[in-house]
Design goal:
By secondary structure, this protein is α/β, with parallel strands linked by helices. The protein is 40% helix and 25% strand. It has two domains: 4-236, P-loop containing nucleotide triphosphate hydrolases (Rossmann fold, 3-Layer(aba) Sandwich); 245-307, ACT domain (Alpha-Beta Plaits, 2-Layer Sandwich). The protein has a six-stranded mixed β-sheet with strand order 6-7-8-3-9-10, with helices on both faces. It has a four-stranded antiparallel β-sheet with strand order 2-1-4-5, sandwiched between helices. Strands 12-13-11-14 form a four-stranded antiparallel β-sheet, covered by helices on one side. The longest helix has 18 residues, at 185-202. The protein is elongated.
Length: 354
């Protein structure tokens, strides 16, 4: 087994590998006595939509901040587009676009002025900026709104403008931190339509964090994060095969008695109490349901049969639902960007282009 230094050398030797645009090995991030990241390793292929799935406090934003050079890990190595995010941070920044979890547009400027400022910071030639501005604003259905001040925009329009801004210098990798959080389902679908189009037209690698299981289904591969560690990584279908069978959730007036009766009558089927519901995995759920109803004496209050989902994968691996909060402390250590990091990010990009 390779040591960390040997692994770092291997990554360095392969930094121009066109297949892997992001390489991460044993990233750790510690806050006082808490491990925000605990030895995270993964790689992302060029042109892939790669998702980090996990609850608040799992370490998703911390990973994006490290890969975007807004924060440093306590240990480990990371390469973005072949550049070391620590020793070659300026070059790494030049090749990425970033949409933060929170809106950072200037509300007092027009949409067009926000884009112009960003393009100048990245040294985009005026002719190229003009072409890209028109192309991207039309793609995101904002061309007719380009002269309007951002303060008049809806939340969905602002999110779409942030996508345009992050792509105005046509980066090779687009980082999206909770890109559709707080948006209605219709707007979320539109955002994803734009993302698919961008990936297809420009072969842009998409790296995103999300809590939405429906969004995670859109990814080519998913890394599931829990307590700062990658607990599973694969494409959505293969992850769901980890659960395999049909799943029945049911709640009775006496779950303890129902569980005891189930163990006696169906010893070959696993049953588990999840919150206030009992979960059973069976091979033919539709046929087993009527048998279950007749076999349990406590009154059944609710019952649901479903095929395995990513939620079930998370349950299988961690023993809890993805939306359950662990505790206040863990949520507080989820790292956010600050203004000093943001100014450093853009000023470094400008300096690198002068």
């Amino acid at each position: 087994m390779c040591s960390l230094s040997e692994k770092a050398e291997q990554i360095k030797e392969n930094q121009n590998n066109i297949l892997e645009v992001i390489q991460v090995e044993n990233l750790k991030k510690r806050y006082k006595n808490i491990n925000a990241l605990d030895g995270v390793s993964f790689s992302v292929k060029r042109g892939e939509i790669f998702g980090l799935l996990g609850p608040n406090g799992a370490g998703k934003t911390t990973i994006i901040n490290i890969l975007c050079t807004l924060s440093q890990s306590s240990s480990g190595v990371a390469y973005v587009n072949g550049y070391n995010v620590y020793s070659q941070s300026s070059s790494a920044r030049k090749s990425i676009g970033l949409v933060f979890q929170e809106t950072i547009l200037d509300n007092h400027l027009t949409a067009e002025e926000n884009l112009y400022l960003h393009a100048m910071l990245y040294g985009v030639p005026l002719k190229e900026y003009t072409r890209r501005k028109r192309e991207l604003l039309k793609l995101c259905e904002l061309w007719d709104k380009r002269k309007m001040k951002v303060e008049t925009f809806s939340g969905g329009m602002k999110r779409r403008l942030e996508l345009v801004r992050a792509l105005i210098h046509w980066p090779q990798i687009l980082f999206l931190d909770e890109p559709t959080i707080g948006l209605d389902p219709q707007t979320r679908k539109k955002i994803w339509d734009y993302i698919f189009t961008l990936r297809k037209k420009g072969n842009v690698t998409i790296f995103l964090t999300t809590q939405y299981l429906s969004e995670a289904e859109n990814c080519d591969r998913i890394a599931i994060l829990d307590h700062g560690a990658v607990v599973a990584i694969d494409n959505p279908e293969n992850l769901k095969k980890m659960v395999g069978e049909d799943i029945i959730f049911f709640k009775t007036e006496n779950n303890q008695l129902a569980e005891e009766e189930f163990h006696k009558k169906f010893p070959k089927y696993p049953i588990k109490l999840i919150g206030k519901e009992l979960r059973v995995k069976v091979s033919n759920g539709d046929k087993f349901l009527p048998i279950l109803v007749k076999s349990i004496s406590p009154h059944i209050v609710s019952m649901e049969l479903r095929r395995p989902t990513l939620e079930d994968v998370f349950l299988e691996i961690t023993g809890r639902k993805i939306r359950e909060n662990n505790n206040g402390i863990e949520e507080e250590i989820e790292e956010k960007f600050d203004l000093s990091s943001l100014f450093s990010f853009f000023s470094s990009s400008k300096k690198n282009n002068e």
